[in-house]
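Below is a filled-in request sheet from our internal design queue. Each sheet records the structural input a requester submitted and the sequence that came back. We keep these sheets so that new team members can see what a complete request looks like end to end.

REQUESTER: design group, bay 2
PRIORITY: normal
MODE: inverse folding
CHAIN LENGTH: 237
BACKBONE (tokenized):
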């Protein structure tokens, strides 16, 4: 009898002890899971905060650059002058100076420039420029600083007085588009075929070309990879 009672008490004690151990292990596993979840949550918060700051910084920097570029462009349109400090905008990608030194006033609020001003040497430092429009500035030739813009893709030079294209354009391997409407061109140089990305040239208003169907056919034949726009905005004399 005593042996049976002792046996049953021992079994009961062992079952109780095993239950307490399992409960302890389960409690520990729950605590570990909660800790891992908290750490992952904190990591996600830190990553989100870091990326948010980086995005805000990039956006603010971009807005500052655009604002300064717009201010410079407005100043140029009013005074027909560019400061030497424009070369400090090394991240600038687009610069539109169309009509800045046009001898004709657009309206009463835009005074007519009294003299032509040279482009500052700092223009050569705009290495990230991909879009440049110098249209309607009374220029007889494409400025030399353009050769120092290796990333340039779009060059606008319409409504000037260019009679020929300079050889240094052959070094602008990223160039895809050239606007040459209403200049004074009678032909195009063969080196344009060496520009691997050049795909579009507008020549409307160059009457020595657009008034001669044989000339237009010849250009298409000589430059098969390039799409030409010969449409005249105004009638040739």
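RETURNED SEQUENCE:
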């Amino acid at each position: 009898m005593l042996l049976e009672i002792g046996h049953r008490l021992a079994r009961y004690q062992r079952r109780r002890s095993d239950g307490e151990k399992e409960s302890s292990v389960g409690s520990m596993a729950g605590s570990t899971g909660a800790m891992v979840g908290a750490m992952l949550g904190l990591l996600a918060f830190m990553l989100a905060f870091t990326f948010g700051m980086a995005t805000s910084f990039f956006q603010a920097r971009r807005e500052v650059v655009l604002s300064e570029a717009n201010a410079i462009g407005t100043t140029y349109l009013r005074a027909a002058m560019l400061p030497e400090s424009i070369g400090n905008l090394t991240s600038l990608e687009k610069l539109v100076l169309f009509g800045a030194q046009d001898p004709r006033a657009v309206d009463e609020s835009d005074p007519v420039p009294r003299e032509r001003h040279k482009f500052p040497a700092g223009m050569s430092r705009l290495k990230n420029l991909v879009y440049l429009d110098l249209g309607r500035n009374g220029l007889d030739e494409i400025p030399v600083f353009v050769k120092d813009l290796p990333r340039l893709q779009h060059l606008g030079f319409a409504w000037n007085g260019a009679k020929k294209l300079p050889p240094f354009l052959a070094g602008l391997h990223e160039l895809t588009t050239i606007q040459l409407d209403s200049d004074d061109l009678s032909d195009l140089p063969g080196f344009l075929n060496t520009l691997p990305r050049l795909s579009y040239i507008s020549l409307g208003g160059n009457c020595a070309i657009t008034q001669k169907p044989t000339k237009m056919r010849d250009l298409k034949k000589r430059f098969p990879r390039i799409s030409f726009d010969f449409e005249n905005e105004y009638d040739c004399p």
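SHEET NOTES:
- Residues 1-59 form one domain.
- Confidence is low (pLDDT under 50) at residues 20-29, 110-114.
FILED BY: M.R.
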